[in-house]
Amino acid sequence: MSVGTIVWLASELMFFAGLFAMYFTVRAAVPEEFALQADKLNLQFAFANTTILVLSSVTCQMGVWAAERLQPVRSGSLLQFWRWGMNEWITLTYVMGAVFIGGQIFEYAELVEHGLTISSSPYGSVFYLTTGFHGLHVVGGLIAFLFLLGRSFAAKRFTHHEETTAIVTSYYWHFVDVVWIALFAVIYLVR
User: Fold this and answer.
1) How many C-beta neighbours within 10 Å does residue 64 have?
2) Are 11 and 177 in contact (CB under 8 A)?
């Protein structure tokens, strides 16, 4: 299961490499358009949203470590996060991922209000395609977390099978986070 996930993520890497190639090609073709449109981006908001997504990788990994201990649920009060099980950590990861998606939707609405749409300019096209496809991948990860939690709750006994499911789901989530860090750097930081 792990090897299959890694092979699949390699194909996803090629997909995102194509999106990066598109971005840099269009950027080289119309640099003045990129300079003009990039000023519409809200760097502080995007940085805060990025921080939430990056921290969700930490909570996801905490969930994996709990799964490796074969601990599906917390062993103390909800406030004792150091005693949380996989379900609590993955639920928090899910919420953080959902907040990230909500932040992207908010950002899109702000940009549309300022006249930047997918069809308004070459910059708009590559911006929405790259960040939109990433957003779809985040939503895919959120769905995977729901399946992981469902499997955990449905299991009569939490075993290595559930642990492996948590591990391979985390591979995908970490991949999506690393891709976003690269996208954030290219879109928001490189001017």
Assistant:
1) 21
2) no
Residue-wise pLDDT tens digits, 49-74? 999 999 999 999 999 999 999 999 88
**DSSP character string of 48-110:** HHHHHHHHHHHHHHHHHHHHHTT--S-SS-TT-GGG--HHHHHHHHHHHHHHHHHHHHHHHHH
Task: Tell me the torsion sign for CA atoms 179, 37, 120, 53.
Answer: positive
Tokens of 132: 């939109």
Q: Given pLDDT bands bounded at 50, 70 and 90, which one contains residue 134?
A: very high
- Which residue type does 83 have? R
Write the CATH number for 58. Answer: 1.20.120.80
Split into its structural domains, the chain has a count of: 1
Cβ neighbours of 14 (radius 10 Å) = 8
